């Protein structure tokens, strides 16, 4: 009987030890998962919030420049207004030459001759 009882007690202790080892392993595995979650949480906390600023551009000058227009389409008043704005002169210009030249170079020219 003693041999049977002794052997049964060793079997029960060995199964108990196995259960305890399995519990410890489960705890260790669970701790690893918790650590991973903690690291993920820390990474989430380190993220910075960036405010995105958008700006809408508004076109201010919608008119085509005088030198881009055909010289036949530009009036004397447009030439005068352009000359006064460009030169800060209070008088109008004496003469104007507006032409376009193509060749190895492409030129678009407006030449003003002042009155004084």
Main attributes of the structure:
alpha+beta; two-stranded antiparallel ribbon
Could you report the average pLDDT, rounded to the nearest whole number? 76
- What is the H/E order? HHEE
Helix/strand structural class:
alpha+beta
Separation of the first and last Cα atoms: 137 Å
The radius of gyration is 46 Å
Largest sheet: 2 strands, antiparallel
Shape: rod-shaped
Summarize the structure.
This protein is α+β, with helices and mostly antiparallel strands. It has helices at 2-46, 76-87, and strands spanning 95-101, 107-113. It contains 2 helices and 2 strands.
What does this structure look like?
The chain is an alpha+beta fold and 116 residues long. It is 49% helix and 12% strand. It is built from 2 helices and 2 strands, in the order ααββ. The protein has a two-stranded antiparallel ribbon with strand order 1-2. The model has no long low-confidence stretch (mean pLDDT 76).
């Amino acid at each position: 009987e003693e041999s049977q009882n002794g052997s049964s007690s060793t079997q029960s202790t060995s199964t108990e030890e196995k259960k305890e080892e399995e519990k410890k392993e489960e705890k260790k595995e669970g701790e690893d998962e918790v650590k991973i979650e903690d690291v993920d949480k820390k990474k989430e906390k380190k993220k910075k919030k960036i405010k995105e600023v958008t700006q809408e551009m508004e076109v201010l000058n919608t008119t085509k420049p005088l030198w881009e227009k055909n010289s036949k389409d530009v009036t004397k008043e447009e030439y005068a207004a352009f000359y006064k704005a460009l030169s800060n002169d209070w008088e109008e210009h004496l003469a104007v030459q507006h032409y376009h030249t193509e060749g190895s170079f492409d030129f678009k020219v407006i030449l003003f001759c002042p009155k004084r």
